[in-house]
Amino acid sequence: MIIATEVATRLAAAQAADGGAFPVAFFVIAFVKLFIVFNVIMVGVALITWLERRVCAWMQDRLGPNRVGPFGLLQPAADGLKNLLKEETYPATADRWLFVLAPMISFVPALLTFAVIPFASPLPTKWGEVSMVVADLPVGFLYILAISSLGVYGIVLAGWSSNNKYALLGGLRASAQMVSYEIAMGMSTVAVLLLMGNVTLSDVVARQQGSIVQWNVFPLTLAFFIFIVAAFAETNRVPFDLPEAEGELVAGYHSEYSSMKFSMFIIAEYLNMVTASALMATLFFGGWDIPFWARDNQAPWTWWLTALTAAMFFVKVFFFIFLYIWVRWTLPRFRYDQLMALGWKVMLPLALLYLTVVATAIWYLHDRLGWAYDSRFSLVMFGVNLALAVPLFLVLDRGRLVAGSVEEGRA
Amino acid sequence: MAITVKVMRRPTQETSYFVATLKGMLLTFSHLFRKKVTMQYPEEKATDDWALSSRWRGTHRMLTDEQGRAKCVACGLCPQICPANCIKLVPGEDEQGNRYPLIYEIDEFRCVFCGYCQEVCPEEAIHVGVHYENAEYERDRFVYDLERLCAQTHPVSTLWDPSDPKGE
Q1: Closest Cα partner for A167 from A231, A81, A261?
Q2: Which residues of A are less than 8 Å from B10 in CB distance?
Q3: What's the angle, vertex CA A155, arms to CA A154 and CA A160, rounded to 5?
Q4: Dihedral sign, CA of A368, A373, A377, A382?
Q5: Is the ipTM of this complex over 0.85?
Q6: Which percentage of chain A shows pLDDT scores above 90?
Q7: Fewer Cβ atoms within 10 A, N terminus or C terminus of chain B?
Q8: A197 domain residue, yes or no
């Protein structure tokens, strides 16, 4: 619906500018952007599966896949080919229709979310300035919240339609976990939106470009912390990968899936990782902004500026993807009650409390003192965050975050 | 009745999830750059700190004399001692009265690679080999006949000597 409205307004605007002619340029440019972004992301996801296996191997003093192609880079292609050629099995008592639908439901939203993330500075062409985002929605962030919540349907339906108790338990866990952490995630991003005063992601990026201390990670350090924990939970990654805890649930919701349908769940997981990493870069690390350099913040835009900022964005996203992999091969999995306790008893109250503090600070600095949003503003906010972080990490964390599952005297 | 979980009591001041996480991540990161222990098998079959033991007992080899005939005199000790009963021996005798094997077959699927055949052989003819790459496309090919046993070229096992347990 949002997309349809957007397309309609764009069409109307373009038609008005062209004197009523059909906006061919808009369609061609949109198609080219779609094509490039889709392919870059799909190839990127394939390479991330390779990177995950290599990094995992290195952390365990092994070499990892290095046989297919140079450095094993063609391993994902071999994996894909294998998955395509494997037998597709259907459990006898499965709900056939939903069983087929579920991988698509988890795959498509994972791909859709990337549409609103700006990945480089605008590119000047002879058809006008082209913004480097597939769809620059005015409600970009709300769109991401809406679409990323859909992914859980695929997992729940996969668990349910398989007619297998382990798959069902995996699906149940996924839904409980995603619902719990979505709230903390939403609350932490509300702080960002309060500070930015906007939900358009390109404006969020533009507001962070002033200097490096205006990257939201400085004025909103704790929001970033809450967001990254919630993002790990949302993407079902270690230490929150309970939906597929193999020790207790076989393979969780995708126990009954084989060949390409299984592969689609894995691709969806990695797509979600890419999107979450891109979101972290956009919301908290200045998007495609190049730090310590003012030239990338204003017109005239050039093609090399687009290339440089795209590279910068890639570096930031890559860092978070590496962080995902790094954490996965370091931490053990949470217990289910610990996961729920952390989500509802720690993350949610923390996010709410933090939101009130941030709102008060912004009100005081902006409305009472009349400060404009600049480096001084964000440094003061950073100070507030540090003051909050000290009790959080020094006192609250001591023996409580994970152990707090059983009341005193009952164990 | 609610299920309770046993929780280890630890000193509160020393337990921190963040500190433990950061320590763990530093450790895994440092491993990224350490020397890898992987041996690239088909190209590399031994490394500085690992090689196949000379006492390894693998698929058999029959040693031959200067004329290229098997050293076996068909005494029948190896089929007698074989715990897996995998050696088939049919003895023959030539005009000078020398015994030789008419048929000598080892079923490598039945073999348990104990090495008794080598220990018991008075002529030091049959040996277990220092060898492990035995893949075949057909089951029948795992019954090694005399010709094939003589044609093997891999090194033979030194076995374990009770009087010299460390192989000195």
Answers
A1: A261
A2: 399, 403
A3: 100
A4: positive
A5: no
A6: 6
A7: N
A8: yes
Residue A1 lies in a domain: no
Chain A positions touching B38 (Cβ under 8 A) are: 57, 62-63
Q: Which of A326, A393, A399 sits opposite B15 (nearest CB)?
A: A399
User: Is residue A330 less than 8 Å (CB to CB) from chain B?
Assistant: yes
With an 8 Å Cβ cutoff, is A336 touching chain B?
Answer: no
**B135 min Cα distance to partner chain A (Å):** 21
pTM of the model: 0.80
**How confident is the model over B27-78, as pLDDT tens digits?**
999 998 888 888 888 888 888 888 888 888 999 999 988 888 888 898 989 9
Domain that holds residue A301: 86-396
For the record, the structure tokens of A259 come out as: 């060949």
**Whether B36 contacts A58, CB under 8 Å:** yes
Number of structural domains found in chain A: 1
User: How far apart are alpha carbons A193 and A182 in whole angstroms?
Assistant: 16
Q: Is A407 part of the contact surface with chain B (CB cutoff 8 Å)?
A: no
- Contacting residues of B for A393, CB less than 8 Å apart: 16, 18
β strands within A301-407, DSSP E = none
Does A259 contact chain B (CB < 8 Å)? no
Which of B:6-35 have CB within 8 Å of A? Answer: 6-7, 10-19, 21, 24-25, 27-29, 31-32, 34-35
A306 in a structural domain:
yes
pLDDT greater than 70 at residue A133? yes
pLDDT digits (tens, 9 = 90+) for A192-246: 888 888 888 888 888 888 777 778 888 888 889 889 988 888 888 878 877 777 7
Q: What is the pLDDT of residues A72-115, one digit of tens each?
A: 888 888 988 998 898 888 888 878 888 888 888 888 888 888 88
- With CA atoms as reference, report the closest residue to B122 among B163, B56, B71: B71
